[in-house]
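WARN retry 2 of 3 for item q-0093 after timeout on previous attempt; input resubmitted unchanged.
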Amino acid sequence: MLNDMPGWKKMRRVMWSALLIVVAVGFAAAQDTSSVEQKAEALREQLRGVTNKQAELQTRLTQLEEDLKPENIQRSVAGTGTTDANGLRDQRQQQLERQKASVEEQLRSLDASRTRLEASIVSAEAEGVRQRAAALGVSNAASAPANTASVPVVPSLQKKQQQSVPQVKRVRHRRVSRRRAH
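OK item q-0093 returned
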């Protein structure tokens, strides 16, 4: 009987087209969200690598600071037979100081990388949240008419809201009138 109606076939095609568009948009949004999540995970992995490298360099820096103590420099060159022990100690100290400066520079660089990665992770996570919200908005918009019809209206709540508004106005009016009376 419905198929006999003149506009039914056209309406059915339009409904199917709309449904396919909503499904395609939802699928594309899901893929976008997945790629953003993959990007965030790759950034987290890079951050773990930077953190591990920082820990290794921090351990190396601690060792270099220990090696730079005069007694340790003396101990390290004690086994070397030379007529210029002071020159050898100075040379060893300079070598250790260069290594220490290099490690400190690497730590500063890694700290900057860590800061950039953390900001990128926050940005990627925010983008993922935005895309999920947009995808939910699309699917909620498609199902909104069906959902709004099923929401029951609570008459007692409406009455309470209507009663509370005039009471607030009366209280304000009383306060104003008291001020005028003084």
